[in-house]
Amino acid sequence: MILAAIDIGSNAIRLQITRIIWHKGESPVYKVLESIRFPLRLGKDAFRTGEITFRSEVKFINLMMAFRTLIDLYEADDVYGCGTSALRDSINGQRIIDRSYEKSGIHIEIISGEREAEILDKVVHKDLGDGHFMHIDVGGGSTEINMINEKKSYARKSFKLGSVRNMQGKESPSTWEAMETWILENRIDPFEATIATGGNIRTLQKLILGQNEELVDIEQMEAMIDHVNSLSIEERIEKLGLREDRADVIPYASEIYLTAMATAGTNKILVPNVGLKDGIIEMLVERNS
Question: Which of 51, 59, 259, 286 lies 20 to 30 Å from 127 when distance is taken between CA atoms?
C-alpha cells in the first residue's frame, strides 16, 4: 500500500509518499519513497494582510499540480492533504483550496489547531515510553501543545504563536500569557522531558548534536540559540549552512520553545524526527487497515 501526505504549512509545504509493507502478525514497515519540502511561505501574506497574494496563489496551485503528478506516478492508494495556520487565517484561503482542487484534483482540508495537534499525537505517541511529557510543536503560524501521561493525551491546545507570525510582529502579548497560564494550569506532575517537534528545533538539534541523536538539554539549546542570534542572517546561511527560509525565523521559534519549557520547568528535550506529514501517514494507515 502506498500513501501520500501533504502538509501545507505557513513557512513551507511538504509532500511525503510512503510505502506500507505488511507482515502477518507484525507491525507494518514504513518505507519513504519521496519526501519534498518546497519553501512557499504562505504565512508572509496571511499574517501581514490577512490575504494570500495572487502570486503565491499561482505558485501554490502549480505546486499542487506537480504533487498530483508525483502521486499519480507512484500510484498512491490514498492521499490526504491539510492546510494549517496561514490558510486558516486568510480570508481567501478556502477559495484558493477550491481553485487548487479544480486544477489538481487534490482535496485539501483546512484544519483547526486542535485537529493539527491530534494528528501529530498519532506519531508522537507511537514510540513514546511511559511517563509524563509535554509535547510542543512550533510552526510558522501556530504552536500546538499536548500534555501526555502514560501514552495518553489529557490536554491539548493551539496558540497563535509561530516563527513567521512572530517575526512579523503579529503575535499578541496576551497570547504569550495565555500559553504560560495554560501550561501551569494543566501540568499535573513534573514532566520527565519536553518532546519538541518542528523544523526549527530539528535544525537546532542537528547543530548541537548531529544527525541521529535526539536528546538535548536546555543549557545546550540556550547556548546554541545565543550563538545563532549573534550571527547575521547571511552568516547563519554561510557559516551554519541554514536555508534562507530557516535562517530568518529560527530565533523566533526558539523563543517559543524556551518560554514553554521554562514555564513547564523541564530541562531535557527529546527531538524526534517526525512532523505533521508523519502523523498524516499514521492516520491513513488507520483509515486503510
Answer: 259
